[in-house]
Amino acid sequence: MSDKTEQNRLSVFKTYKLYVGGKFPRSESGRVYEVQDSKGKWLANAPLSSRKDARDAVVAARKAFGGWSGATAYNRGQVLYRVAEMLEGRKGQFVHEVAHAEGLSKSRAAEIVEAAIDRWVWYAGWTDKIGQIVGGANPVAGPFFNLSTPEPTGVVAIVAPRESSFLGLVSVVAPVIATGNTAVVIASEKAPLPALSLGEVLATSDVPGGVVNVLSGRAAEIAAPLAAHQDVNALDLTGADAELARELEIAAADNLKRVLRPQAVDGEDFAADPGTHRLTAFLETKTVWHPTGSLGASGSSY
Amino acid sequence: MTKFEYAPAPESRSVVDIAPSYGLFIDGEFTEAADGTVFKTVSPASEEVLSEVARAGAEDVDRAVKAARRAFEKWSALPGAERAKYLFRIARIIQERSRELAVLETLDNGKPIRETRDADLPLVAAHFFYYAGWADKLDHAGYGANPRPLGVAGQVIPWNFPLLMLAWKIAPALATGNTVVLKPAETTPLSALFFADICRQAGLPKGVVNILPGYGDAGAALVEHPDVNKVAFTGSTAVGKAIARQVAGTGKKLTLELGGKGANIVFDDAPIDQAVEGIVTGIFFNQGQVCCAGSRLLVQESIQDELLDALKRRLSTLRLGDPLDKNTDIGAINSAEQLARITALAETGEAEGAERWSPACELPSSGFWFAPTLFTNVTQAHTVARDEIFGPVLSVLTFRTPDEAVAKANNSQYGLSAGIWTEKGSRILAVANKLRAGVVWANTFNKFDPTSPFGGYKESGFGREGGRHGLEAYLDVR
């Protein structure tokens, strides 16, 4: 869009695609929709995902779950940090996309992108610490070793924030995968381009294919089959409006998905300290008992 | 049967460029010692002089503490997320330069390249990575809201894991917002000086990390300095006690990681082959120069012969020699002084009537070497069962019942580590409950991880390094 240097050269447009199972498919439906900037100017066409795309994404996420949840927390931390490193190198592209998507000045968009990079670093540090603050030994009144540890819930479907197309997106995706879950995320309907570009970063950041799957389209259309899907374990409704959230929560009850409800009507402040609630929302607690046996009294005198 | 000999498989020295001389690292600059003194650091495997290093004295300690104090205000006021990013940078640069640092460490320390490459360096990078993540999460660490750093930390580390001990000291100190003055051991100053260069590459603000190569006098001056708020020491129990006396009445926060005489308890139902590997790892890793070494083998009487036969067979296959050879199991002893200490203690063992055994093992003609050694017929009264030898010397004792094993294991001034070998889970946990030791390994030995707290009971010191617990040593939570 900068014109002076490109006077005689026609720029190459990018075909925005979905990110599913580590690949970049078009929607199986063959549909796209127009994405506009805040002033109504056409930016690009984005895939209009179908129910089938959603189901394919769940299959990819499930397939990736074993490896990702089985990786060491240290390894996951390094992968998340690698995402931050890769994003830092492509900051210019994201500043550009976020500025257009959200109608922001370049400097304001840069702040947002930088905050998003730092958010990856924040969650990279949590991978091997969350277990230390939410798990622990339980002093049961008996001769038992008793230890509680958190484990990832499984496949998490995320309705990404509608307004905060990039910082909001990162803020909901990173905590889900930090703990070993895999994600199917529905990008902001009106500003999906930063999310689709994030897929390109994840694909080159040692994040195994299928750990994050990005769909664009109408939230209501894609979220419904995800909320009803029997192989989805949890649902993050951050970007759903009140009516949609209620419908999805009802559908989610069918296999008792863990549901993270949207915050207050005015949305969530993604610039604020993220805390840990997005990590703990998608964790199960496993408690292991083991008898400790007895040595008799004499051992205790030392 | 034909015996196939190993061909030499030396790691190349060309990845590391050691300068002929190094200065002290104070306030972001390399500088000579105030009185111009230097000392030589040698390769213990060949006695070759590697470099000449400035020797810090009291005046240099004062300069370094002042630099750290000046840096403290800004460093501690940085948002945790920014401190975290410095530490993440350091972790990544260590990963990038890990082969270079592994070769350097092997040259300066004498330990096998297999250990520096596969254990020391990965753990060093992981330690910085782990504590980097804590820097902006201190509110979640269980020490109340907004826990504050202490100020300037004076840190004195040993020669057995030079860079790893540095990581254990510096990473949590910086993550919590302290600044540091660190004195590496006189026989292994080089990796700490390379680390100073890594701090520069990472853009770490001047004065946040200061490195003072030197001897015990520099360490004592650092501990004594009135503007040091925190003292952390890893080394011998005798020096640890002297430091505890020095800081008494000053209000300085103190953590000590000292000696050990770890009991490795093998029950009759243990898988013998695995136990033998664990015993070997326990005492011959790093030539036994490990504070948490399993230097007392407590074996159940009924399997003593079988276990000792298997152990001796295994020891006969250990390869002692060039630490840079990738096949080497046992490297050099770190210094002539340490070799003399081990030799004297082993002689005492013989003199007191314990039975000494070593596999046939040719020692290189130059450098400092000690063959893997077993003592049997050892009683609890023997010096080799009581004193920390800090060398590749294992004392074997026996027991009949679990109670007796626990009693003997705990019969020590030390309480750093212990090992338990049995197939029975409930016995592991029952015995672990009774052991007065800070780290208990079950069916494994000498395992370390940045997330896991490490430290001793009794005269093995106090305070923990590693894990969430390791933060406390550097926070004002008294």
Automatic annotation (TrEMBL), chain A:
Single Gene Ontology MF annotation: oxidoreductase activity
Residue ranges occupied by any Aldehyde dehydrogenase domain in the UniProt entry: 28-259
UniProt cross-references to InterPro entries, sorted A to Z: Ald_DH/histidinol_DH, Ald_DH_N, Aldehyde_DH_dom
Alphabetical UniProt keywords: Oxidoreductase
Pfam family, one: Aldedh
SUPFAM superfamilies: ALDH-like
PANTHER family given in the database record: ALDEHYDE DEHYDROGENASE-RELATED
Protein name: Aldehyde dehydrogenase
Native organism taxonomy: Bacteria, Bacillati, Actinomycetota, Actinomycetes, Kitasatosporales
From TrEMBL, chain B:
A Pfam family per the record: Aldedh
Keywords: Oxidoreductase
Keyword Nucleotide-binding recorded: no
Protein name (record): Aldehyde dehydrogenase
InterPro entries to which the protein is assigned, alphabetical: Ald_DH/histidinol_DH, Ald_DH_C, Ald_DH_CS_CYS, Ald_DH_N, Aldehyde_DH_dom
The Aldehyde dehydrogenase domain, residue ranges: 31-477
Family of the protein in this entry: Belongs to the aldehyde dehydrogenase family.
Organism expressing this protein natively: Streptomyces lavendofoliae
